[in-house]
Amino acid sequence: MFELRGHAHKFGDNINTDIISPAKYMEQGFEAMAAHAMEGSDPNFSRSFKEGDMIVAGVNFGAGSSRETAPIALKKCGVSVVIALFFARIFYRNCINIGLPVLICPQADEIENGEELEVDLEKGLIHSMDSGRYYHCRPLPPHIMQIVRDGGLMEHIRRKQERNEGNNYVSTDDTL
Amino acid sequence: MMDDILGPWILDEPLRITGNRIAHPDKVVVICDHYVPPANVNQANIVAYTRKWAEKHHITNYFEGQGPCHQVLAENCFSLPGTLQVGTDSHTCTGGAFGCFGTGIGSTEMAGVLAEGKIWLKVPESIRINWEGVLPRGVMAKDIILKTIGDIGHAGATYMSMEFTGGTIRALSMDERMCISNMTIEAGAKCGLIAADDKTEEYLRKHGYSGDINFIDSDPDATYVKILEYKAENLVPQVACPHNVDNVKPVTEVKGVRMDVAYLGSCTGGRLNDLKVASSILKNKKTAKSCRLLVSPASWKVWLEADEQGILACLVEAGATILAPTCGACLGVHSGVLAAGENCVSATNRNFKGRMGSCDASVYLASPATVAASAVEGRIADPREY
Question: Is A163 exposed, middle or buried (0-12, 13-18, 19+ CB in 10 A)?
Fold first, then answer.
C-alpha cells in the first residue's frame, strides 16, 4: 500500500552530518536544528520543504557524526522517508531508532528533483507519479520495520516489556 | 559512554518511555567534554543538565572537563581488550587501539542500551590493513591513517571492521595507535581494531588497571574482504584537503597553501606524543605572524606531563595559545572557531564544510608534525624539513 506521498528533494553524494545538522546549532534545541537543516548544501531547505516530502540522495548519506540531531532535524522538517543509494551506518540506525523510515534504492540517482513520489514501505516500492516508473528497494526486515512503525526504539522496547517478551534480534539480512 | 553533547539532554526523554530504568549503572560512563568550558548559556545548561542527570542516576563514572571522552576512557582503563564498548560519539572507535570493539551509536540507541543492558549488532566483515617497515623521520601515525582513508575512500569501509596489523603498527606507541583507530569512522568503519600486546598491557598497568586482559587476535586463517599491504618507508606526510577526509594528497602537492590557524588537540591529535613532536619542531622558533597556533592537550594528565617536560612552555614561547582539554574548536563550538575565508591546518579528524566554524573556512587535516611545521611557515609545510 502506498502510504507515503510527496515530492523528492534531490541531493548528491556524501551528504554528511555537519551539513544535515551543523554542530553550532545543536545547543539551541531541536527547532533551531530543523531551521538550519541541510544548510551547507541547500540554504533554503527548511523553508522550501513541505510536510510529507522526501529526501532522495546518492551514496553515503549521513556520513560522519553519530549525532541523532541529524535524523531528528529531518523528521522535524516533515521528511516522511529518506531514500538513498546507500547510507552511513550510524545515521541509518539512528533513523530507525527515532521512527524515520529509510530505504536503500539502487536507482535513487534516476529520480529527479521535484518528482512526485508515492512509497510502499512494506514492499520497498517507489512509484513516480510524474514518469510512471517504479523503483524497487530492499524493504526493511519486518522486525526492524516494527521499530519504525512503533515510532522508534524506546516505544518498541516499552511495548515488548509490557508483553514481557525476550530480546532476540536475529537478522540474516545483510542490509543491516 | 555518553558525552554532554549527545548524552542525557537528548536521551533523557526517550529513556522515560521505559520508566527511566538503567540496567547496569556501574557500566555507564558519563563524560562532559564537547561543551566544557561552556562558551555560552546554552552550553552551560547542557553541561549542568548532564551533571545533574549523572547524580540522579547514581553514575559514579562521571568526568567533567578532563578532556575529550575517548582520551578519558583510555586513561581510566574503560577501553579494555576483548570487550564491547558503545558511545554517543562516532569516534568511540578509538577504543579499537586497545583491541576493544568500540563503536559509535545514537542517543536513542543509547537509551535502549541503558534500559536493556544490550544492543543488537551484526558482526561486520573485516578489511586487513598491513603496514610493514619503519616510518621515516617526520612521518606519524596520522599519515598512516590519512593515506589509508585516502585509498579506501570516505565510505570504503562502511559497516566493516578495519584491522591494522604488521610491524609498523606493532612499533607504534599507544598514543599513535589511538590516532589510527580514532579515524576509522572517517572511512565508514564500524570499528578500527589493533590487537592488544605488551604495549597495551604496559599502558593499562601504568594507568592503574590490575585486572585480567583478554588478548584476543584474529585467527591466522581468518578471511578478510580485502587485505591492503603498505610499506612504511614509502609513506610521506599526508594532508586531507577540504572538504572531505578522503581528499588526501601528499604534503609535497599541498605545500605553500596559506594557513591562518594551526590546531593541535582533540581525541585525534592532542596526546603527549603529539605535543612532544610539535614542540621538537617549534623549539627556539616562532610561529608565523599570520598564523595563530592553538593547542588543546587531550587531557589533564597530558597537560600535566607536557608541563613537567617543558613542552607547554616551549609551545608558548613559539607563540601558541594553550587551551583547556576540550573538544571545542574541533567541531566549531568554542575556543578557536574559524572565520569566513580562513584556512586551518589541524591535527583533528574532520574537515567537512563548516566543521570548525564558518561554512566559508577551509580545514586541512594533517599530523601534529605537519601542523607544527606549517605554523612556523604560515603555510602548509613539510615536517621532514625540520
Answer: exposed
Using CA coordinates, name the residue in chain A closest to B42.
A27
Contact B268, B370 (CB under 8 A): no
Which of B18, B35, B106 faces A68 most closely, judged by CB atoms? B106
Identify the pLDDT of residue B121.
86
How far apart are alpha carbons B79 and B31 in whole angstroms?
14
Q: If you count residue pairs, one on A and one on B, with CB atoms under 8 Å apart, how many are there?
A: 130
Residue A54 grid cell = 522526501
| pLDDT cut 70: percent of chain A above it | 93
**pLDDT per position as a tens digit, B351-377:** 998 899 999 999 999 999 999 999 999
Q: Is the confidence at residue B245, as pLDDT, over 70?
A: yes
Which CATH class for the A4-139 domain?
alpha beta
Task: Tell which A residues from 132 to 151 touch B, by Cβ distance under 8 Å.
Answer: none
Q: Which domain holds residue B17?
A: 2-116
Predicted confidence at residue A30, as pLDDT, reads 86
- Domain total for chain B? 3
Query: Where exactly are the structural domains of chain A?
Result: 4-139
Q: How many CB atoms lie within 10 A of CB A38?
A: 24
For residue B104, give the chain A residue with the closest CA: A66
Do B109 and B138 have their domain in common? no
Range B311-324 average pLDDT:
98
This complex has an ipTM of 0.80
Judging contacts by C-beta atoms under 8 Å, the chain A residues touching residue B47 are none
Nearest to A154 among B14, B158, B332 (CB): B14
What's the helix, strand, coil split of chain B in %, to 5? 40, 20, 40
CA distance B221 to A51: 53
CB A102 within 8 A of CB A94: no
- Domain end marker among B116, B136, B170: B116
Given B234, B268, B295, which residue is the final one in a domain? B234
pLDDT band at A2 (very low <50, low <70, confident <90, very high): confident
For residue B53, the surrounding DSSP H or E stretch is: helix B41-56
Q: Which of B14, B105, B122 sits opposite A90 (nearest CB)?
A: B105
For residue B165, pLDDT beyond 70: yes
